[in-house]
Design a protein that fits this description.
mainly alpha; two-stranded antiparallel ribbon; 5 helices; elongated
Length: about 190
């Protein structure tokens, strides 16, 4: 098998059930999920599995789920089964709830950073938000599996909660936005 096929040299790519220009929003959507997957792999590479015995395997599971998101987004065949299901969204919500309980209560906005692990997870969060924006735009133009959009929305929240836990477990304070007023007042820890 050759790594290169030359089939994309004209500026188009094959997807499941058709073809699209390489700059089409659908290609941008699944390409951004792929980019996010790479950043998740980078985050895993800097996290100590002994200190993060829950987060590291979750991130590896998320990598597979992001591949599922990409597969669903790369499919225009309406008869093809979808891979991203509502249970995946619920699972993220459960983990977010657990991490919010573990991290110290948040009163002010925070900046991305603190520990290297938290900083990597914040990069994942922002790329997940970008993927979500692109998928939201795609949804206006073409049919998609709506669970992908929900999943990406929860995933960015997951990364935020996991980043806060990473800082907490490493005894590194979150970086508070210095001009932030107290905005949360115990309502939540996000």
């Amino acid at each position: 098998m050759k790594l290169y096929t030359r089939t994309g040299d004209s500026g188009q790519t094959s997807i499941i059930g058709g073809k699209r220009d390489k700059d089409h929003i659908r290609v941008e959507a699944y390409g951004t999920c792929d980019e996010l997957n790479s950043f998740v792999g980078k985050a895993v590479s800097v996290m100590d599995p002994e200190l993060f015995p829950d987060i590291v395997p979750e991130l590896m599971k998320i990598q597979h789920e992001l591949f599922d998101c990409g597969g669903d987004l790369a499919t225009v065949n309406e008869k093809a089964p979808v891979k991203v299901k509502s249970e995946m969204v619920s699972s993220l919500e459960d983990r977010i709830d657990e991490y919010i309980k573990e991290a110290p209560e948040l009163e002010r906005f925070i900046l991305p950073g603190g520990s290297q692990a938290a900083a990597e997870l914040h990069v994942c969060r922002t790329v997940a938000r970008r993927a979500e924006r692109i998928v939201a735009g795609l949804k206006k133009e073409e049919d998609i599996n709506p669970e992908v959009l929900k999943y990406l929305n929860r995933l960015s929240d997951y990364f935020f909660a996991a980043a806060r836990v990473a800082n907490f477990r490493l005894s590194v304070p979150d970086v508070e936005y210095e001009r932030s007023a107290i905005v949360f007042r115990g309502k939540n820890k996000k």
